[in-house]
Amino acid sequence: MSKITKKYKAAAAKYDPTKAYTLLEASRIVKEISFTKFDASVDLSLRLGVDPRKANQMVRGVVTLPHGTGKVKRVLVLCTPDKEAEAKAAGADYVGLDDYIQKIEQGWVDVDVIITMPSVMAKVGKLGKILGPRNLMPNPKTGTVTVDVAKAVTEVKGGKIDFKVDKQGHIHTSIGKSSFDASKLSENAAEVLNSIIKLKPSSAKGTYLRSVSLSSTMSPGVKVDPKTVS
């Protein structure tokens, strides 16, 4: 049996995997069972009672985590020269246009978020095949296509994340690090969940939050009772 398998089993023995906990209880358990040597990412996973194949049941949005993600996000701003200075001042890691478009076409995607302007979307749109599968394509719905690039950079650096339901009806997103206090993890998770609840499509029938769980990198998942989310 590998060391990782042993650690996984030891972690799983510290709580009841059949029980659904409150967000705060689940956050405490995830911290306790996180066994990586590095500061693991804590993830929120949901299964929604929607059919994402129907346009009127797509659940997508943005939310600013009250305590940030704990991760330094590398931001690329693709903009016109007159916007470069304000993008850099706001904290963008990379700023430019044609030179970065060329780099991306050659395979460079070493960033976490790409922000751009409506006036250059015709150029950026050509990168769809590269950026789309990596979830890096700028989109007005997530605030990454905007005239105010400085504000967008500030928000991303401050803990703004976007989420989108996948084809199976699941949403996965990082809500912090295992070094965070349990209360901060719980509050970040609640912010995301409340945003998702508000986005419930009117055409979705039955139970909306089918399942909710928290986990850290390589740890077992801890079930959250959807009834305790409000």
Distance linking N and C termini: 41 Å
Strand order of the largest sheet: 7-1-8-9
Shape summary: globular
Order of helices and strands: HHEEEHEHEHHHEEHEE
Task: Give the mean pLDDT.
Answer: 92
Could you give a short account of the major beta sheet? 4 strands, antiparallel
Count of runs of 4 or more consecutive helical residues: 8
Radius of gyration: 19 Å
Question: What are the key terms here?
Answer:
21% strand, 230 residues, 9 strands, globular, alpha/beta
Protein architecture, described:
By secondary structure, this protein is α/β, with parallel strands linked by helices. It is 31% helix and 21% strand. It has helices at 3-12, 23-33, 81-89, 98-105, 121-124, 128-131, 149-157, 182-198; strands at 41-48, 60-64, 75-78, 94-96, 113-116, 160-164, 170-177, 209-216, 222-224. Strands 7-1-8-9 form a 4-stranded antiparallel sheet, covered by helices on one side. α2 crosses α8 (182-198). The longest helix has 17 residues, at 182-198. 33% of the residues are buried.
